[in-house]
Amino acid sequence: MDRTFDFHGTLVTIKSMTCETGGIYTILYAVHPPNTGPALHVHPRGSECFYIVKGGYKFILGNKLIDVTPGDLVVVPTNTPHKFTVGNDGGEVLIISSPDLENYFSQVSSLLRTGTVTCEMESQIAQKYGQVFLESTNHWK
């Protein structure tokens, strides 16, 4: 598996795979272009943490809207609906997430290199690896 790849225009690097953490979590580093972000989703297998390295982000976390900047940490409890939008200057974030999530990013990235990924396809892959979308996956555009 490639450790660094393009995922909908975001450069994702797998820092630690689930198999390297005893099956407990995965660590990712993402370099986001401006004004992008995922659809609203939850992680039923575990919590997710975002350490903001560069840029500004707006998070929806449950029923809260949170503005974050470098040095901030966002902790998303298990099954909490969340999404974010990257600010106008893009951003960089370190993500500690539930097990196997790196496989979602890697598989969707591989499919994007060879063709189109439908919303349904991406939702199925996401669910297989512990991410459940709560709205359309027509995101990262």
Molecular structure report:
It is a single chain. The protein is of the alpha+beta class. The protein has a single domain, classed as Jelly Rolls, CATH 2.60.120.10. The chain is built from two helices and eleven strands, in the order ββββββββββααβ. The chain has helices at residues 101-114, 119-128, and strands spanning 4-7, 10-16, 26-32, 41-42, 48-54, 57-61, 64-68, 73-76, 82-86, 91-97, 132-133. The strands form three sheets. The chain has a six-stranded antiparallel sheet with strand order 1-2-3-10-5-8, with helices on one face. Helix 1 (101-114) packs antiparallel against helix 2 (119-128). The chain is globular and about 35 Å long. 28% of the residues are buried. The mean pLDDT is 94.
Per the principal axes of the C-alpha atoms, what is the gross shape?
A: globular
Total number of domains = 1
Classify the fold: give the CATH topology.
Answer: Jelly Rolls
* H-E string: EEEEEEEEEEHHE
pLDDT average, as an integer? 94
Strand content: 35-45%
- Low-confidence sequence ranges: none
> What is the number of strand segments?
11
- First-to-last CA distance: 25 Å
Query: Could you give me the name of the CATH homologous superfamily?
Result: Jelly Rolls
Major sheet summary line: 6 strands, antiparallel
CATH class annotation: Mainly Beta
Q: Give helix % range.
A: 10-25%
Strand order of the largest sheet: 1-2-3-10-5-8
Rg from Cα: 14 Å
Tally of helical runs: 2
The class by helix and strand makeup works out as alpha+beta
Assigned CATH architecture: Sandwich
